Automatic annotation (TrEMBL):
Residues 17-136 form the DNA methylase adenine-specific domain. GO terms for molecular function: DNA binding; N-methyltransferase activity. Gene3D superfamilies: DNA methylase specificity domains, Vaccinia Virus protein VP39. Residues 313-487, 515-664 form the Type I restriction modification DNA specificity domain. Belongs to the type-I restriction system S methylase family. The keyword Coiled coil applies. This is Type I restriction enzymeP M protein. Residues 468-495 form a coiled coil.
Length: 678
């Protein structure tokens, strides 16, 4: 290429031209520079490159410098070796937006000024950027410590730091003067790129490996005679229908990767990630994808998901163990467990809800002669936390203890205890919001997820007392609103229950569910994993008749013009009312009841079925089989009574739906408070 290109291009056409080797195997680097030349400010591009572009050295480092200086990286899509036929090459797609040249030029001058005056002023729109750089890279030292390094007289803290030791080990310079000049240049370059990318977020799309990759792409290649070429992974479907990469009709399909890239170009990094995409879509800070803590700085862009918990803030960061005492829960031998209630009550993770409420639902008892350290008792202003769990969903969940209790934290639990309420509440707020998902992600263990030895190292912003007080006060207003709204929902549900009970008292007719002239009783059909489709439109209900466990694109039932009543055949006893014109697919763990006469309304039928099933003791240990359901006899009130409560319940359910919207908005409002102050 290089020899042939001499006819058309010269060294003046590409800054990277002279860095090409004779065989020009790095021609993709010129593609990057050419993209820079072609795009105007704000222009966007998607460019497919070998994965080596992100990590190789030499001319690749220079190409990455062009990318970082002149583009925002909106997204990176990693594509495995099965993406393109017969190449065997791992590739990435970089989704880029062209920046103004002056941004990088002016920042470079600004960084030069810092190394002359050492003033940590706002640069590139970032407050105290050098302090942020030191916190991010030089863990454990202050900006004052860092400046001693730049003055070529490092204090003891810097001299003992691993980065400084690595500089001493790796920089092979003859004189001390050359050594310091080299360090200053490296630090200058690191600080420049740190500030340059600090505000950028990047969407990372991972297609997975082997079968996961194949199903994410939605296609596979075949070399079999007569079937050569590319084929959809599901028969009778097109690749467009199978792929998770894109939707050729919609820009906002949450089950397609292209949606998150589209949102990134629009600056929206808060768009909820669909459950089916959580193993493939990640949002990272670009600054976390670069490695600054090595002697060399090659601007490698890492797509590895680093397990790290850190809130970027304008305030100093401190480790949690400086603010709270971490108390482990009580451990005990099984011989001390009691089946009868005692004064030694142990609480497990079951007593903390996923949204951070303390609700006692499960007590364990130890014999009264067993002595538990009183330090492990839950008292006012404690933070009750799950330190170990087999579930990622439950690990790290927290509850704030408002009053002294007679309960002790269990063995898989812990207590975070501060000296005063305001600090405790502030730490709780962060653990239950900004840090919640990060803590799930950093937990370790093959079978049991564990936070032991990790929690105390987590750093959180520690603003002045008046700022913490404002945060706590504003969050408590939202918590009060949330609590009151939840109470209103509870009261509304109680009102619905009362409506049914009043109607039941007027019941004057008895029906047996085995009467085929009045009721249609049936069960669904087994659904295997291979039949589930993350893009499916029809929800599949199993024993849990309230939450679908997946989706399909086929029907078992064709007529949805009438309502249905679903019940769970095994598992906890559940009954759900399904309104008309709402398609669903029941499995063989889900029963369906429909009414053939007008004298019985389905909403009342769902309630009375649940009531009768509860009396029968249907549970995990007693299946609600179709025969047992048909054996039930139900009491029905006059139609006028059923119609009356139907109208009333519809009104109440509308009120509940509106209240739920308020509750659903609270987490975002809390995050807004934290972002405003931190």
């Amino acid at each position: 290429f290089k020899n042939n290109a001499n006819k058309y291009y010269g060294k003046d056409d590409f800054d990277l031209y002279n860095s090409l080797t004779d065989n020009s195997s790095e021609i993709e680097c010129l593609f990057v520079e050419r993209t820079k030349q072609l795009l105007k400010d704000g222009g966007i591009a998607g460019i497919i490159l070998p994965s080596s572009m992100l990590s190789n050295e030499g001319i690749y480092t220079k190409a990455r410098e062009i990318i970082l200086q002149y583009f925002e990286i909106a997204a990176i899509t990693e594509l495995g070796s099965n993406t393109f036929m017969a190449t065997g090459t791992n590739t990435v797609v970089l989704f880029l937006r062209r920046k103004n040249n002056y941004e990088s030029i002016n920042l470079k001058k600004s960084v030069e000024r810092f190394f002359n005056d050492w003033q940590d002023v706002t640069r590139n729109g970032i407050e105290k950027p050098v302090s942020k750089y030191v916190n991010h890279v030089w863990d454990g030292i202050t900006i004052d410590d860092y400046i001693t390094l730049l003055k070529k007289a490092p204090n003891k803290t810097v001299a003992n730091h691993e980065i400084y030791k690595e500089y001493r080990k790796k920089i092979k310079i003859k004189t001390e003067k050359e050594f310091w000049n080299e360090i200053i240049e490296i630090e200058k370059e690191k600080l420049y790129y740190f500030i340059l990318v600090y505000s950028q977020k990047t969407v990372l799309v991972k297609t997975g490996e082997k079968n996961d990759e194949k199903h994410f792409l939605g296609y596979e290649f075949s070399n079999r005679r007569g079937s050569e070429g590319i084929h959809p992974v599901q028969r009778s479907k097109t690749i467009d229908e199978c792929t998770c990469l894109f939707d050729d009709e919609r820009f906002d399909n949450p089950a397609k990767a292209s949606t998150y890239i589209y949102k990134a170009f629009a600056g929206d990094y808060e768009y909820p990630i669909h459950e089916s995409m959580k193993a493939n879509i990640f949002r990272l800070r670009l600054v976390d994808m670069l490695t600054f803590d090595r002697a060399g700085f090659e601007k490698n862009i890492s797509t590895a998901i680093k397990k790290k918990v850190k809130i970027e803030s304008k305030w100093d960061l401190v480790t949690i163990d400086l603010l709270v005492q971490i108390v482990r829960g009580a451990t005990y031998s099984k011989e001390y467990q009691s089946n009868t209630k005692t004064s030694n009550i142990i609480l497990t993770a079951d007593n903390i809800t996923l949204d951070g409420e303390f609700i006692v639902t499960k007590e364990l008892y130890l014999t009264d002669n067993y002595v538990i350290n009183q330090e492990k008792r839950l008292v006012r202003n404690d933070i009750f936390i799950c330190l170990s769990s087999g579930s990622k969903e439950h690990i790290g969940k927290v509850a704030f203890i408002a009053d002294d209790t007679n309960y002790f934290a269990g063995g898989f639990m812990g207590i975070l205890r501060a000296k005063e309420k305001m600090t405790a509440k502030y730490v709780y707020i962060l653990l239950n919001s900004l840090l919640r998902q990060d803590i799930r992600d950093i937990s370790t263990g093959s079978n049991i997820n564990n936070l032991s030895g990790i929690l105390n190292e987590i750093k959180i912003p520690f603003p002045p007392k008046e700022i913490r007080e404002k945060i706590v006060a504003e969050i408590e207003v939202l918590e009060k609103k949330e609590k009151e709204t939840k109470k209103s929902i509870t009261k509304a549900k109680e009102k619905i229950e009362q409506c049914f009970k009043e109607a039941y008292e007027k019941a004057n007719v008895t029906y047996k569910l085995s009467n085929d002239e009045i009721f249609s009783v049936s069960i669904g059909k087994r659904v295997i994993d291979a039949e589930l489709d993350i893009h499916g439109k029809i929800p599949v209900y199993s024993a849990n008749v309230f939450e679908p466990f997946g989706y399909v694109n086929k029907y078992l039932i064709t007529d949805f013009t009438v309502p249905s009543v679903l019940w769970g055949i095994d598992g906890d006893w559940m009954v759900n009312y399904m309104s008309a014109n709402k398609p669903f697919y029941p499995t063989d763990h889900c029963g369906m009841l429909r009414i053939k006469i007008t004298e019985v309304l389905p909403r009342y039928l769902a309630w009375i079925l649940h009531k009768e099933g509860k009396q029968q003791g249907f549970s995990r240990n007693l299946r609600a089989s179709i025969d047992r359901i048909k054996n039930l006899t139900i009491k029905i009130p006059p139609l006028s009574e059923q119609q009356k409560i139907d109208l009333e319940i519809e009104k109440i359910e509308t009120q509940i739906a509106e209240a739920q919207k308020i509750i659903d908005s609270i987490p975002e409002l809390k995050d807004g408070v934290l972002k405003k102050y931190l």
